[in-house]
């Protein structure tokens, strides 16, 4: 599995958009980009995933660059409950493969 | 729709003892993966079970073993516990054959080894 690079921490004001970057320069053509988040001491929560097109769901939007070497997770209107560690993971789809977690980005949403 | 459940929530053991953790997958899922998360670290893959067999394994010693039952639930067993086995143990389930096999995690079992 390709490795990812994320900033260790970010701050965001409540109500503003949170943009979390991820670099995955060695991603292979069949690898998806997944985002999970983990609120303190809970299990990771799936957020969104994508291959090469931008994706949006009720939680977030995922923007993947055309060369697929980086992506950005966007939380459009961050709330205090979005404070968590966000993990960007690349993994081959369709094989129930293991997820390789890095250290993630600790997002702190403040008033 | 029931999500992934794990039991127990918390567990305290002493060095040398053995422990069994349990996981019930999300309804409709057939694959269970186990992860270990030490304090301040990201989860680390232990192994994955599908069709009652170990399908993949991470870099964990043989003291870590597992089992999957016909109803797709799973157990993680750890023998000869060490202090370093203290961690949050996470179970994730998925459905083989889907395009992206998205894994959904349970709340975890917090194991403390004294």
Please provide the ordered H/E string of secondary-structure elements of chain B. EEEEEEEEEEE
Q: What is the typical, i.e. mean, pLDDT of chain A? A: 92
Which percent range fits the helix content of chain A?
under 10%
Q: Could you tell me how far the N terminus lies from the C terminus of chain A, measured between alpha carbons in angstroms?
A: 38 Å
Q: DSSP strand (E) fraction of chain B?
A: over 45%
Largest interface: A-B, 23 and 32 residues
Q: Name the average pLDDT of chain B.
A: 94
Number of strands of chain A: 9
Shape of chain B: globular
User: Pairing-aware structural class of the strands and helices of chain A?
Assistant: mainly beta
Strand sequence of the main sheet of chain A, in spatial order? 1-9-8-3-4
**Rg from alpha-carbon coordinates of chain B:** 13 Å
Largest sheet of chain A: 5 strands, mixed
Annotation field: number of helices of chain B = 0
Number of helices of chain A: 0
What Rg of chain A do the Cα atoms give?
A: 13 Å
What distinguishing features does this structure have?
heterodimer, A: 111 residues, mainly beta, five-stranded mixed sheet, four-stranded antiparallel sheet, B: 114 residues, seven-stranded mixed sheet, 0% helix
Question: Could you describe the 3D structure shown?
Answer:
The complex is a heterodimer of chains A (111) and B (114). With 111 residues, chain A is mainly β. Chain A is built from no helices and nine strands. Chain A has strands at residues 9-13, 18-23, 31-38, 45-50, 55-56, 61-64, 70-75, 84-92, 105-110. In chain A, the strands form two sheets. A five-stranded mixed beta sheet of chain A has the order 1-9-8-3-4, with no helix packed on it. Chain A has a four-stranded antiparallel beta sheet with strand order 2-7-6-5, with no helix packed on it. The model of chain A has no long low-confidence stretch (mean pLDDT 92). Chain B has 114 residues and is mainly β. Chain B is built from no helices and eleven strands. In chain B, the strands form two sheets. In chain B, strands 2, 4, 5, 6, 9, 10 and 11 form a seven-stranded mixed beta sheet that branches. Chain B has a four-stranded antiparallel beta sheet with strand order 1-3-8-7, with no helix packed on it. Chain B is globular, with a radius of gyration of 13 Å. Classes of the chains: A mainly beta (111), B mainly beta (114). Chain A binds chain B through residues 32, 34, 36, 41-46, 49, 87, 93-104, and chain B through 4, 31, 33, 35, 41-45, 48, 50, 55-56, 58, 88, 90, 92, 94, 96-108, 110.
């Amino acid at each position: 599995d390709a490795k990812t690079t994320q900033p260790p921490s970010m701050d965001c004001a409540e109500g503003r958009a949170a943009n979390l970057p991820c670099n995955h320069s060695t991603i292979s053509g069949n690898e998806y980009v997944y985002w999970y988040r983990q609120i303190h001491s809970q299990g990771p929560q799936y957020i969104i995933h994508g291959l090469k097109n931008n994706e949006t769901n009720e939680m977030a939007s995922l923007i993947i660059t055309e060369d697929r070497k980086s992506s950005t997770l966007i939380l459009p209107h961050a709330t205090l409950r979005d404070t968590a560690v966000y993990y960007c993971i690349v993994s081959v789809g369709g094989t129930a493969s293991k997820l390789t977690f890095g250290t993630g980005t600790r997002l702190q949403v403040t008033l | 729709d029931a999500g992934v459940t794990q039991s127990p929530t918390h567990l305290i053991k002493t060095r040398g003892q053995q422990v069994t953790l349990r996981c019930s997958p999300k309804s409709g899922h057939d694959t269970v993966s186990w992860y270990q998360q030490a304090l301040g670290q990201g989860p680390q893959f232990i192994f994955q079970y599908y069709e009652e067999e170990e399908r993949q394994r991470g870099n964990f010693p043989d003291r870590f073993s597992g089992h999957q039952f016909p109803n797709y639930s799973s157990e993680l067993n750890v023998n000869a516990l060490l202090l370093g086995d203290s961690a949050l143990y996470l179970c994730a389930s998925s459905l083989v054959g889907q395009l992206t096999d998205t894994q959904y995690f349970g709340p975890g079992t917090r194991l403390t080894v004294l």
